[in-house]
User: Fold this.
Amino acid sequence: MSYTTTTSYGTWCNRVAQYSTSPDADVADYVGSGDSEWVERLQASGALEQMQSDFRAAINAALPPSISLCGDEFIGPAYPEDGEFDDYPSDEDGSLDFKAMVEDIDLAEIVERNDPVTLEEIGRWEMKSKAQNPAKAASMAMHRAGLKPLTYLPHPVSGRPQAIYLKGDVQEALAKRPGRGKRTEQA
Assistant:
């Protein structure tokens, strides 16, 4: 059995974002300025946690394979192999530049992809339905696509359970519908 001695390469606060405690806090701060009903829906549906998880996954994907973000701390080998970090940016001291590694991560895209949407919103905005009841058209489309709701939340007016989907999943399912962009010339 082989063991690797690990060490801390610093924290999110001292290596990436001086006034932040963690990437999770950055996501919460980013969405916190949104409409209060939307922020409540994020929290109640679990979409906020999904955004935070996707942000962390993007951060870890940008790091060298032997380094991980654990909580708010970057952990990696205490004795890296020669040249192990040659393809990664370094700062003026020759240390890994974590801020440069993660600066191209698009948090807005992560938030957009994990935006919790209702059937009404899917019908109106994603499907551009002109139907009198766009939620019904969206429900049929989601059923045909085999896309299950992320969760159900009470409707703000009626209190009845309302299906909630993640916008990125919906867009992907709608893009895969038969006939979308697949028209061919008939002889």
